[in-house]
Amino acid sequence: MPLPGTFFAQKKDGSTYYRASITYRSKHISLGSFLTEERASLAYQLAVLVLSDGKHFYDEPLQEIEAHKSIASVLSFEKWVMLINLRDHGMYCRNPIYLQKRFFFYYISASTALKFDVDDLFYYMNHKIMKRGGHLFVSDYGMQVNILSRYGIKNYAVSGRDFVFANHDTTDFRYGNINIVNHYHGVSKGLLRGQDVYTARIHINGDYIIGRYPTETEAAIAYNKAAETLRSQGICKDYPENYIEHVDAVEYASIYHRIRISRKLRSLHINAD
User: Fold this and answer.
1) Which of 69, 163, 210, 251 has a Cα at 20 to 30 A from 143?
2) What is the number of domains present in the chain?
């Protein structure tokens, strides 16, 4: 007779293991795979404890894990968050999400919780966030997609220069907290005599100033013009192109031809590293 919440399973190579599951509010939930029936049963018992514990309600799951540290040793932290959210909010998410009134936490680890607007809930219920080399991304149609792209932030953007977190919390990805400063490659915003000015720079064997312009659009097009000029001079470097969606072809051509770029760049004849 199997222990409650457990069942025997077998791999293709003939080795055996045990699975644990629980049904809660008509929702059948897998708790994971375990080497022994006893450990699978313990996972089931802990899941029962979590789901039946109506005495404790916390602002976030990390506060509760301190009260039930033994849970994490058997149940995965992700599964634990899913169960807590189901108990407190009646919604089972396939990812480690914990709902709040107007936003939600997404736990990428037991020590790091990201905040998102509720508008993103459906997306992150179906897209698992992964972290590699300091970058946060999801798998979308077989491609790795940086989560910053949902805000119109390019892959080459640098936090603190091209975009900023308004409240200085780098885990807060709510739309109102992310301000894009520089939308285009090679363009940075600054002040000159109290007026906004956009400086376009391009890297050769160091950064060269292409020029300073009154609008971000002109600076972005100036960068494109500088890149094409350098390529025509034999400087073989893969400069990204700025795409300006709000400017049609006729207006783009007009700006491109009238915009001035550094004379030094026009007469540069060196090989880029």
Assistant:
1) 163
2) 3
Q: Is the pLDDT score of 194 beyond 80? A: yes
Which one is predicted more confidently, 56 or 17? Answer: 17
Q: What is the pLDDT of residue 76?
A: 84
Which stretch of DSSP H or E encloses residue 254?
helix 249-258
Q: What is the pLDDT of residue 93?
A: 93
Residue 62 and residue 172 share a domain: yes
* pLDDT category of residue 233 using cuts at 50, 70 and 90: confident
What distances in angstroms separate CA 70 from CA 49, 82, 89, 181, 245, one per listed residue? 11, 17, 23, 45, 53
How far is it, in rounded angstroms, from Cα 44 to Cα 19? 10
> 107 and 158: one domain?
yes
For 38, other C-beta atoms within 10 Å of its C-beta total 12
Query: Residue 92 carries which DSSP code?
Result: -
Under DSSP, is residue 89 helix (H, G, I), strand (E, B) or coil? helix
Which tokens hold the place of 36?
């022994």
Q: Are residues 205 and 249 in the same domain?
A: yes
Mean pLDDT of 151-159: 84
Q: What is the pTM of this model?
A: 0.76
CB 137 within 8 A of CB 147: yes
Check pLDDT > 90 for residue 238: no
**Which domain covers residue 82, as residue numbers?**
57-179
d(CA 71, CA 196): 54
- Quickly list DSSP for 183-232: -STTEEEEEETTEEEEEEEEESSSEEEEEEESSHHHHHHHHHHHHHHHHH
Residues facing residue 21 across a β-bridge = 30
